[in-house]
Each structure stands twice: as structure tokens, then as C-alpha cells.
Q: What sequence folds into this?
């Protein structure tokens, strides 16, 4: 299921991406705004938050430091986990 499909089903969807910088995780939107060039393209974390009615769930997909970070894959994994948790 895609983010667009989930939104059509009435969910509010928030997505955050974090990248490795100087040994720690930094929100990708901050890196983009500040034009950082020295963050690693390996490793990272994607967090998806789903809300509908009074219920909110968060799910995480992480990428090992040895693997290239892929936003689309991170969203797909975290979204699937969030939907699974939401249905519990």
C-alpha cells in the first residue's frame, strides 16, 4: 500500500528521515536546509506516523551503516509496519 492510498483511507501520515552525520542521526530536512554535504549516504532511519481518529502509531525502518539509504524503501517498510500495528 502506498502513502497516497493510506491517505485516501482517511489516515494522516507523517514521515521523517534521519541520516548519519558525525556519528549521530540528524533529521534529513535539516541537512537539506543547511546544505550539508558531509553526511553519509550509508545508514539511516525512516519513521512513519499514522493517525486516524484518536489512535496514533509510529513505526521505524532502519538501514545498516553498510547499506545505502533508500527513502522509498524505508517508507514502504515503515508504512507496512505502522499499518500492521494500527490494526492490532
A:
Amino acid at each position: 500500500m502506498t502513502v497516497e492510498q493510506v491517505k485516501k483511507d482517511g489516515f494522516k501520515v507523517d514521515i521523517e528521515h534521519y541520516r548519519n552525520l558525525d556519528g549521530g542521526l540528524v533529521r534529513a530536512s535539516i541537512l537539506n536546509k543547511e546544505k550539508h554535504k558531509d553526511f553519509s549516504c550509508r545508514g539511516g532511519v525512516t519513521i512513519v506516523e499514522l493517525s486516524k481518529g484518536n489512535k496514533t502509531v509510529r513505526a521505524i525502518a532502519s538501514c545498516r551503516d553498510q547499506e545505502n539509504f533508500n527513502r522509498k524503501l524505508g517508507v514502504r517498510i515503515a508504512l507496512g509496519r505502522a499499518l500492521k500495528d494500527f490494526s492490532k
Notes: The mean pLDDT is 86. The radius of gyration is 14 Å. The chain is about 30% helix and 45% strand.
